[in-house]
Amino acid sequence: MSMKRVLLLAAYSEILVSIVETSFTVPLKKQHVPVIMNNRTVTRKTAYFGTIHVGLPNPQSFTVVFDTGSGHLFLPASECTDTACRLHRTYSREKSSTVVEVNDDGTEFAADSDEERDAVAIAYGTGEIVGDFVRELVCLGNVSESRAAASASQNCATVRMITAKEMSPQPFSSFEFDGVLGLGLAALALDPEFHVFGQLVKGANALKPSFSVFLSRNDDTPSEITFGGHNEQRMQGAITWAKVESPEEGYWRFKIQSVRVGDEVLPICDVPGGCSGILDTGTSMLGVPPQAVSTLLWHTAREAPDESGSEFDCRRLPGAPMVFDLGDFTVSVDPEDYFRPTPSLIRGNATGELHSICRAALLPVNLQSLGKNVFLMGEPLLKKYYTAYDAHNERVGFALAARPAQDGKPQNSVADVVV
Question: Domain with 311 in it: what CATH number?
């Protein structure tokens, strides 16, 4: 082989290595929080979270929910005295040499200034935080110990983040994660510098403007989020894409043509504007329009076997899937994912007898600013599909998630919005 050919192959190999290294993966831990009624665990809330590192020279480590339904990074501040803050690791400005105190417009805030510090309040579904702003070095996953190395790393970026001085007890006191890192489209952020993923993409190593999420059904199989691409080992087949609807709103939102249970099409989307869905990794239920709840409950409810008793697991009961028609393809949620695990006791109108009924775990969501018929596609859908988020082409992708051989039984269910 000629020396020229050897050099060309070497150069080609370097290019391939460079392509492979344009993505990185952050493992996600899972936490289940039981919901107890009448001394029985009727269902569970679930959260998935990964590790980030903030500041230098000694990076401070935190766990965050990677939330596709919001646009900012917040962490509890060391000054916060709320119970929710005291239960978690808190961010200390004094320990960082890379921190800059800023106002909401990015201008530097002088500590000796007589002016009042800018503050912000942000609602997260069932919770709220109040805080102020800093500009700081943030790394997802591993972090280099030097400023130069961290600044050149594809998984690090200088961003504006919110340091929470107040945190509501729920849901933050119930869960292990310290904060939330928003992965909505850039329009959800107050400013592009607040948008962590956007700042990563602008970094020195040109990270591709896409990421993907795998939520495992089995607690023994780690979940993960991959930045800059996707992990084919977590997929069955190719990704099918749907265009993001109204990207200027900042949500990973797509058009839903119709909704059916099994083969029966329901009239839910037969209204002006139709239906749409939002992929939301911070939601641990299937969120549905309030006016659609009773229709979906009626068409999915099943009576548990008479001999089963109150301990019967509804997720093992056969039933019809909820199917969402996206135009060129469909996605669906199966009974093992949408049923609450514990049956409900319902008294029949005609006989007055109690019946053990398996019901879907649906969360009524009222997002009037986005329209009347918006579905939040949370964990029930995200466990079934490997989902991809392409900011450059403004599209979301779906592929059936790979399921390990031991992952054949339904795991813990969910029953609430986490953030």
Answer: 2.40.70.10
Residue 19 lies in a domain: no
Tokens of 162: 């919110």
Rounded Cα distance between 173 and 49, Å, is 15
178 found inside a domain: yes
| Domain count within the chain | 2
Assigned domain for 80 exists: yes
Residues 201 and 277 in one domain: no
Fill in the DSSP letter of residue 110: P
Among residues 54, 43, 139, the alpha carbon closest in space to that of 99 is found at: 54
Tokens describing residue 108: 């530097």
8-state DSSP, 296: H
Report which of 399, 238, 258 is spatially closest to residue 327, judged by C-alpha positions.
258
Single pTM value for the model = 0.88
Give me the residues paired with residue 26 across strands: 225
Contact yes or no for 343/249 (Cβ under 8 A) = no
Between strands 179-182 and 60-67, the pairing is: parallel
CA distance 323 to 318: 15
Tokens, residue 115: 């002016």
The two structure tokens encoding residue 54? 């903030």
Highest mean pLDDT among 97-101, 148-152, 301-305: 97-101
- In three-state secondary structure terms, 415 is coil
Written as one string, the DSSP assignment of 388-399 is EEETTTTEEEEE
Structure confidence at residue 39 as a pLDDT band (50, 70, 90): low
Rounded to whole angstroms, the Cα distance separating 82 from 183 reads 26
> Which residue range forms the structural domain that includes residue 70?
25-207
pLDDT digits (tens, 9 = 90+) for 174-217: 999 999 999 999 999 999 999 999 999 997 667 899 999 999 98
210 DSSP β-pair partners:
390
Quick check: 272 and 264 in contact, CB under 8 A?
Answer: no
How many Cα atoms occupy the beta-carbon half-sphere of 103 within 13 Å? 11
d(CA 83, CA 167): 8
Residues 315-332: tens digit of each pLDDT: 989 999 999 999 999 999
Computed over its alpha carbons, how large is the radius of gyration of the chain? 23
Specify whether the CB–CB gap between 354 and 310 falls below 8 A: no
| Cα–Cα dist 181/360, whole Å | 29
Whose tokens are 């990015």? That residue is: 106
C-alpha–C-alpha distance, residues 323 and 296, integer Å: 11
The pLDDT-based confidence of 276 (bands split at 50, 70, 90) is very high
Is there a domain that residue 97 lies in? yes
